[in-house]
């Protein structure tokens, strides 16, 4: 099991946001997390790489217990790539610079090796020809693909996506989703928070419906999105589809 979440609780102050999440993601599996705004989707992803500290529960990623107080958080984060709604590229660096800097700083790769890995991953997202451009010269969709390539350049075992296409103009969404589709097909282990139900249906091995901090329903996409069993899931899907 690549990601194992057991009894995860997260409160902010007195407010419980995650109220007992149990979830497993197998190696090479893509799990889409859907649910209303405020249901705890981002908090769930952020707990997996300890951007948020769980209030209770246990999370294991690739055999290492993230929630072990003794764990080397930086070592764990190196194995987990995260892509956000906002691309968070360094505006003063070229595309290539965005990909090489974290490799040099965090992984201590040589300049030549970092550049080589950057080129491989830019090619993977179809943006090799933009290596010398600056983020501001790219469309939102291209910037998000650079953000994905930057995360991939760190050689993660797991990729977390938090609504990666929500900030994009509709015509730019498709290219980002194709990159993610290919990544899933290549066997990456992925957790994807998304409102793109067609993507979930097509790519997810499993869909998890989160509402009010609990998993209400989970199963194959065809079931959860196509034939939901719970009224809360149906109500949500009626609103987004
Ligand atoms: P989603 O991603 O599903 O929209 P979030 O995980 O962002 O939901 O948020 C779930 C709930 O937790 C919301 O009510 C939100 O206001 C609250 N919340 C998230 N982050 C914080 C924080 N840092 N401090 C206090 N409350 C937070
Ligand atoms: Mg969110």
* Gyration radius, rounded: 18 Å
Tell me the total number of β-strands.
Answer: 10
Lateral arrangement of strands in the main beta sheet: 6-7-8-3-9-10
Low-confidence stretches: none
Q: Percent range for helical residues?
A: 25-40%
Distance between the termini: 32 Å
Largest sheet, if any? 6 strands, mixed
Structural class per helix/strand content?
alpha/beta
Strand content of the residues, in percent? 15-25%
List cofactors, ions and other ligands. Answer: adenosine-5'-diphosphate, magnesium ion
Put simply, the count of helices is 9
Oligomeric state of the chains present here = single chain
Specify the overall morphology. Answer: globular
Element-by-element helix/strand order: EEEHEEHEHHHEHEHEEHH
Average pLDDT number: 96
Domain ABC transporter: 3-237
Subcellular location: Cell membrane
GO molecular function, one term: ATP binding
Family: Belongs to the ABC transporter superfamily.
């Amino acid at each position: 099991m690549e990601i194992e979440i057991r009894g995860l609780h997260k409160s902010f102050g007195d407010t419980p946001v995650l109220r007992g999440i149990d979830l497993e993601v197998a190696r090479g599996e893509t799990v889409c997390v859907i649910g209303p705004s405020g249901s705890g989707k981002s908090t769930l992803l952020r707990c997996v790489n300890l951007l948020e500290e769980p209030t209770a529960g246990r999370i294991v990623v690739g055999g290492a217990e993230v929630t072990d107080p003794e764990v080397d958080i930086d070592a764990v984060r190196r194995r987990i790539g995260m892509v956000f709604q906002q691309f968070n590229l360094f505006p003063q660096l070229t595309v290539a610079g965005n990909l090489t800097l974290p490799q040099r700083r965090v992984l201590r790769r040589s300049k030549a090796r970092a550049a080589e890995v950057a080129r491989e991953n830019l090619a993977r997202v179809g943006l090799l020809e933009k290596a010398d451009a600056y983020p501001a010269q790219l469309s939102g969709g291209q910037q998000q693909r650079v953000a994905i390539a930057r995360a991939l350049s760190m050689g993660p075992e797991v990729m977390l996506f938090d609504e990666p296409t929500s900030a994009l103009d509709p015509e730019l969404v498709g290219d980002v989703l194709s990159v993610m589709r290919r990544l899933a097909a290549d066997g990456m282990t992925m957790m994807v928070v998304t409102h793109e139900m067609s993507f979930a249906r097509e790519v997810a091995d499993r869909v998890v419906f989160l509402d009010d901090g609990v998993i209400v329903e989970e199963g194959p996409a065809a079931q959860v999105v196509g034939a939901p069993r719970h009224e809360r899931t149906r109500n949500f899907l009626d609103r987004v589809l």
